[in-house]
């Protein structure tokens, strides 16, 4: 513990001798002695300069030592100056009064040098300790205050941070909620999209496949029924219907479901064959049959022996050939061009046309007898617009086909697209749909089919008054109605023709007339 040795000691006494004694005692010990000969002077000194200790005589004229002591202790600025009262008779009454006035200690007159010095030293140490304590307390208070400040600043900071955090949490919660909302919306959209998308693969399992014929509409079911009825027979089949409705497909299905399926199916397109060569194409020719015929040619009828001949676009066959064809159909016989030898052939005939043969007959462009020969078992292919139910299956079929061909991976078609396709008139029928899908597979980006064609301009039928186009007005030809009705009644009667509850009676026909009609329309029980 260090302590300053130059302590300033105020000695207050009305006796100069005492003051000199004290000065003589203290000064040599390094104390700075300040003298006052009375109370008022002492108080002035104390107010003007720092004093470390005050030695105060009790009995002084005017203001005694007790009063001076009281004033020192009564002033906050001077209260910590230790006061030592000097009394010549150290009686108890004076000590009590001194203590009450606030004196810290007492020394007796005459002074005992050792006692005075010991007391001064002790009081100075105490004062120093007290000063130190006050200082420490002040430091502590300061530290406490600064800590308080720091704590309050920190608390404020934390509160602010907490507030910010709370706001952030709220914002985040809000963001999360809106994200959840967005997710929900996306999920909703996705679900809707999925609901709107027709998954092609799912459809594959449901695809009705009669050979290559895709479709499951009621109209096509009728075709399937008739195909399955006639395929096993050798009967001639006449396929009717607009262009692109699938007559060729049905011809192949009939052949491949028949007992001739291991034998060839020879197709002759009566439109594309040059008229001059048709005859040799069909029946063959001997070498030298005509100028330039330097080799023998086997005709298609000969090639098809045991198999099937598909005469496509029969309505376009020249009249002179129709006669020869009739002979093959009737007798199974013909001669090669330039040869008298009759060749026998066993072929099944399937003919197809998009013309109205009755009109052709009426107008003299088609032989009536040939027409009856061909019209043994007519099958009318419904136009695509009459069997929109098949459009999804057909789209699926063609997308799969063109995916494979072009190495694409399209697997969905939106409902909107299907609706667009289903609403179109399809004058070119399945062939037209096929090329629309081929185009769309080429141009689609991604996995969903995008059809860019605009169909509206084609919607209206071009020739509303053309005969045989009744289906454009939702009207079936009478002949079709009759066929359907007979079939329907026969199914109802369990194929009973005659007698009570027989189909003939119900239809108001003789049994023989009904049988004739059934033959005419090729209606047989399967
Ligand atoms: N039901 C079907 N299922 C699958 N493909 C079909 C179907 N109908 C038609 N097609 C396809 O449509 C295209 C046209 O068919 P097809 O040539 O058989 O018609 P068509 O009635 O003979 O026409 P045209 O009278 O002009 O000769 C072909 O590529 C065929 O494969």
TrEMBL record:
Organism: Geomonas silvestris
4-aspartylphosphate: residues carrying this PTM: 57
Protein name from the UniProt record: Sigma-54-dependent Fis family transcriptional regulator
PROSITE patterns: RESPONSE_REGULATORY (PS50110), SIGMA54_INTERACT_1 (PS00675), SIGMA54_INTERACT_2 (PS00676), SIGMA54_INTERACT_4 (PS50045)
MF terms in GO: ATP binding; sequence-specific DNA binding
Entry keyword set: ATP-binding, Nucleotide-binding, Phosphoprotein, Transcription, Transcription regulation
A Pfam entry, by short name: HTH_8
Occurrences of domain Sigma-54 factor interaction (ranges): 213-442
Domain Response regulatory: 8-124
GO biological process: phosphorelay signal transduction system; regulation of DNA-templated transcription
CDD domains per UniProt: AAA, REC_D1_PleD-like
InterPro entries: AAA+_ATPase (IPR003593), AAA_lid_NorR (IPR058031), CheY-like_superfamily (IPR011006), Homeodomain-like_sf (IPR009057), HTH_Fis (IPR002197), P-loop_NTPase (IPR027417), Sig_transdc_resp-reg_receiver (IPR001789), Sigma_54_int (IPR002078)
Superkingdom of the organism of origin: Bacteria
PANTHER family, sorted: C4-DICARBOXYLATE TRANSPORT TRANSCRIPTIONAL REGULATORY PROTEIN DCTD (PTHR32071:SF57), TRANSCRIPTIONAL REGULATORY PROTEIN (PTHR32071)
């Amino acid at each position: 513990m260090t302590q300053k040795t130059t302590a300033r000691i105020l000695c207050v006494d009305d006796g100069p001798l005492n003051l000199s004694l004290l000065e003589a005692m203290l000064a040599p010990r390094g104390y700075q002695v300040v003298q006052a000969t009375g109370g008022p002077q002492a108080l002035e000194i104390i107010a003007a300069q720092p004093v470390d200790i005050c030695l105060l005589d009790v009995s002084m004229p005017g203001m005694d030592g007790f009063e001076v002591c009281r004033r020192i202790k009564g002033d906050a600025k001077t209260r910590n100056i230790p006061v030592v009262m000097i009394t010549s008779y150290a009686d108890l009454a004076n000590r009590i009064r001194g203590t009450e006035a606030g004196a810290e200690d007492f020394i007796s007159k005459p002074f005992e040098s050792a006692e005075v010095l010991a007391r001064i030293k002790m009081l100075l140490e105490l004062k120093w300790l007290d000063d130190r304590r006050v200082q420490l307390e002040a430091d502590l208070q300061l530290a406490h205050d600064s800590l308080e400040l720091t704590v309050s600043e920190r608390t404020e900071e934390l509160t602010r941070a907490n507030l910010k955090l709370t706001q952030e949490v709220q914002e985040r919660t809000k963001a999360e909620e809106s994200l959840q909302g967005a997710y929900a919306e996306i999920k909703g959209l996705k679900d809707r999209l999925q609901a709107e998308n027709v998954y092609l693969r799912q459809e594959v399992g449901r695809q009705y496949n009669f050979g290559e014929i895709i479709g499951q509409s009621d109209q096509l079911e009728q075709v399937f029924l008739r195909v399955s009825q006639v395929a096993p027979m050798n009967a001639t089949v006449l396929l009717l219907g607009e262009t692109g409705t699938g007559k060729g497909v049905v011809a192949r299905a009939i052949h491949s479901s028949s007992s001739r399926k291991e034998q060839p199916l020879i197709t002759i397109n009566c439109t594309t064959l040059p008229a001059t060569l048709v005859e040799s194409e069909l029946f063959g020719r001997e070498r030298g049959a005509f100028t330039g015929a330097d080799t023998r040619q086997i005709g298609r009828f000969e090639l098809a022996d045991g198999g099937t001949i598909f005469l496509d676009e029969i309505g376009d066959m020249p009249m002179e050939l129709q006669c020869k064809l009739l002979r093959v159909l009737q007798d199974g016989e013909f001669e090669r061009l330039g040869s008298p030898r009759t060749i026998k052939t066993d072929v099944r005939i399937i003919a197809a046309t998009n013309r109205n043969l009755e009109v052709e007959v009426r107008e003299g462009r088609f032989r009536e007898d040939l027409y009856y020969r061909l019209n043994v078992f007519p099958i009318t292919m419904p136009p695509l617009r009459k069997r929109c139910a098949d459009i999804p299956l057909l789209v699926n079929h063609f997308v799969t086909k063109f995916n494979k061909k072009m190495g694409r991976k399209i697997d969905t078609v939106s409902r909107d697209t299907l609706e667009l396709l289903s609403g179109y008139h399809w004058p070119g029928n399945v062939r037209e749909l096929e090329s629309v899908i081929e185009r769309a597979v080429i141009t689609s980006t991604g996995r969903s089919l995008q059809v860019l064609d605009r169909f509206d301009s084609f919607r209206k039928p071009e020739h509303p008054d053309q005969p045989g186009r009744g289906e454009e007005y939702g009207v079936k030809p009478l002949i079709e109605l009759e066929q359907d009705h007979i079939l329907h009644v026969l199914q109802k009667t369990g194929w009973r023709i005659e007698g009570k509850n027989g189909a003939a009676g119900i239809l108001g026909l003789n049994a023989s007339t009904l049988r004739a009609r059934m033959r005419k329309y090729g209606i047989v029980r399967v």
